[in-house]
Design a protein that fits this description.
Shape: flat
Distance between the termini: 80 Å
Radius of gyration: 21 Å
Number of helices: 2
Oligomer: single chain
Strand order of the largest sheet: 1-2-6-4-5
Structural class: alpha+beta
Length: 169
């Protein structure tokens, strides 16, 4: 005769399924977004903005679209990829051989490396992306930025927090 442990086994499977579902829900929806803004660079007219983008997640982030000023497409949007410790911000970026600008959809954002991992990558001399930034050109001053991206197979849209960076009209 078989022992009657089916109800206990079902209860165990249901509890395990509930636990895994809760963890998945937290990681995908309730946890803060994996994209963090490290800083902004604005030029005198505020029509050109560069913002540092950091992937604090566990998987690659694919940038899909960038909008400015309540849903308007910017004149040009580029992803800056730095293969050195030079942040993608400030001036002289086009002259730096370790920074290249590509279409925002071309290169996924890898998860941020620890300082030791960054040092090891520099010592190896390999071209591993260490920093990212998005450069936006627009015909009017930029007052708001919204980024659409894919993380873990799910598409998200997020307004980049800028605090008091811009003088809102």
């Amino acid at each position: 005769m078989k022992p009657r442990s089916k109800p206990h086994r079902r209860l165990l499977y249901m509890g395990l399924g509930l636990l895994l579902s809760s963890i998945l829900l937290y990681l995908l929806f309730l946890r803060p977004t994996p994209i963090k803004v490290g800083g902004f660079t604005s030029f005198t007219d505020e029509n050109t903005i560069i913002f540092e983008v950091i992937n604090e997640g566990f998987a690659d982030v694919e940038l899909l679209d960038v909008r400015v000023n309540n849903g308007m497409k910017p004149a040009k949007a580029e992803l800056g990829v730095s293969y050195s410790l030079h942040l993608v911000g400030g001036g002289g970026l086009d002259e730096d051989p370790d920074i290249e600008f590509v279409d925002i959809r071309e290169v996924p954002l890898k998860p941020e490396l620890s300082p030791d991992e960054k040092r090891a990558a520099l010592n190896q001399g390999s071209r591993i992306p260490l920093n990212y930034g998005v450069r936006l050109y627009n015909d009017e001053p930029i007052t708001q930025i919204e980024v659409k991206y894919r993380y873990g197979g799910i598409t998200f849209t997020r307004e980049m927090p800028m605090g008091r960076f811009f003088n809102k009209p």
